[in-house]
Design a protein that fits this description.
Largest sheet: 7 strands, mixed
Oligomer: single chain
Strand content: 15-25%
Cofactor: pyridoxal 5'-phosphate
CATH class of the largest domain: Alpha Beta
InterPro entries: Aminotransferase_I/II_large, Kynurenine-oxoglutarate_AT, PyrdxlP-dep_Trfase, PyrdxlP-dep_Trfase_major, PyrdxlP-dep_Trfase_small
CATH topology of the largest domain: Aspartate Aminotransferase, domain 2
CATH superfamily of the largest domain: Type I PLP-dependent aspartate aminotransferase-like (Major domain)
GO molecular function, one term: transaminase activity
Keywords: Aminotransferase, Pyridoxal phosphate, Transferase
Radius of gyration: 20 Å
Number of helices: 13
Protein name: Pyridoxal phosphate-dependent aminotransferase
Shape: globular
Bound molecules: 4'-deoxy-4'-aminopyridoxal-5'-phosphate, glutamine
Strand order of the largest sheet: 2-10-9-8-7-3-4
Distance between the termini: 41 Å
Length: about 375
């Protein structure tokens, strides 16, 4: 194995899902829903599968999906992308992120990201021979997560190539405010760097959040330098389909396409028309999806609080983070390894998403994208924890 990949073992999600399978624990670790997405989408996929959509689709994705992606961004965010040249279909957001970093970073270039960061970021940056420059999100007294503006400013330097921004943010559930985004935008322009935004949770911002979701590309001067990434997995509860997309100015999208050609070439032929159908679903679908998850967030947060955790209320995503100190926990990794035995529940230690291990040492993440009866079961188990 090459040196640059040696620090990366089995992903924490695979490790924790295997632990759940082995112990029979309720798996609130890896983030995947336990129900299927919209019936219209599933029917469209079955139809495509039986009507000859089983060979290589066009390189950038089928026209119907590229059009649906463009239309969706106009409808929800007022963003304009030409489906021909400014939209690329990818094998999930994961491939779009990897291809973007490989396309834009020379070895030694620096990528600024907020920690805790999604695990594939560090690996993709390493694959490119680039260097990550994390800026830490700290829990605040108000129960949110925030970064020190001076730390962000200090992270920029002559080798900075891009900022990789995830909002709504996994694992914290933070939704970056317009003020925070404005600072990021100003620094990107001052230092002439690109932004790559991971917005896979764009439709999961709860009604009591302090801020609505604001795509960075909507800020003045940012469309031109932002590659915006999202995917169907979260919004349509089909994480196994791996249909994602990247949108941005033609020069950026064409650079990413160059790399994607040689990673997977194309992907998901019969699933692409189905995701096009899903993207065009009426607002009722999106509102119902969000409301359902908000109710489950409240259900799990209340259960965690009753069990003795200090819950940091997420404003978005389908994850809740909690501090284990009041339960006598000192280290999230140890805590999560012993949790199945203590009470039959699996969670993920957020520590593994930080370079600054101490910053996340006492935080663990629970996924609430599960049926209410599963969350009830998990809460009942947690309440027996000793
Ligand atoms: N980014 C974030 C922040 C995620 O949480 C996930 C996945 N769960 C991904 C990217 C990957 O998305 P996909 O499954 O579409 O590759
Ligand atoms: N994004 C999912 C999570 O954060 C997991 C995806 C994966 O297993 N790679 O739980």
């Amino acid at each position: 194995l090459v040196h640059r990949m040696r620090p990366f073992g089995t992903t924490i999600f695979a490790e924790m899902s295997a632990l759940a399978a082995r112990t029979g624990a309720v798996n609130l670790g890896q983030g995947f829903p336990d129900t299927d997405g919209p019936a219209e989408m599933l029917a469209a996929a079955a139809e495509a599968l039986h009507s000859g959509h089983n060979q290589y689709p066009p390189g950038p994705g089928i026209p119907a999906l590229r059009q649906a992606v463009a239309e969706h961004q106009r409808r929800f965010w007022g963003l304009d992308y030409d489906p021909n040249g400014e939209v690329l279909v990818t094998a999930g957001a994961t491939e779009a992120i990897a291809a973007a970093i490989l396309a834009l970073c020379e070895p030694g270039d620096e990528v600024i990201c907020f920690e805790p960061y999604y695990d594939s970021y560090a690996a993709s940056i390493a694959l490119a021979g680039a260097v990550r420059r994390p800026v830490t999100l700290h829990p605040t007294a108000a129960g949110r997560y925030a970064f020190d503006p001076a730390a962000l400013r200090a992270a920029f330097g002559p080798r900075t190539r891009l900022v990789l921004l995830n909002s709504p943010h996994n694992p914290t559930g933070k939704v970056f405010t317009r003020d925070e985004l404005t600072l990021i935008a100003e620094l990107c322009q001052e230092h002439d760097v690109y932004a790559v935004t991971d917005e896979v949770y764009e439709h999961l911002v709860f009604t009591d959040a302090a801020t609505a979701h604001v795509p960075l590309a909507t800020l003045p001067g940012m469309w031109e330098r932002t590659l915006r990434i999202s995917s169907a997995g979260k919004t349509f509860s089909c994480t196994g389909w791996k249909i994602g997309w990247a949108s941005g100015p033609a020069a950026l999208v064409s650079a990413v396409t160059r790399v994607k050609q040689f990673l997977t070439f194309v992907n998901g032929a019969p699933l692409q028309p189905a995701v096009a159908v899903a993207l065009a679903l009426p607002d009722d679908y999106y509102n119902g999806f969000r409301a359902g998850l908000q109710a489950r967030r409240d259900q799990l947060s209340a259960g965690l609080t009753a069990a003795g955790f200090d819950v940091l209320n997420p404003e978005g995503t389908y994850f809740v983070t909690a501090d284990i100190t009041r339960l006598g926990g000192r280290d999230g990794v140890e805590f999560c390894r012993s949790l199945p035995e203590r009470c039959g529940v699996v969670a993920v230690p957020t520590q593994v998403f930080y370079d600054d291990v101490t910053a996340g040492q006492r935080l663990v993440r629970f996924a609430f994208c599960k049926r209410p009866e599963v969350l009830d079961d998990a809460v009942a188990r947690l309440s027996t924890m000793r």
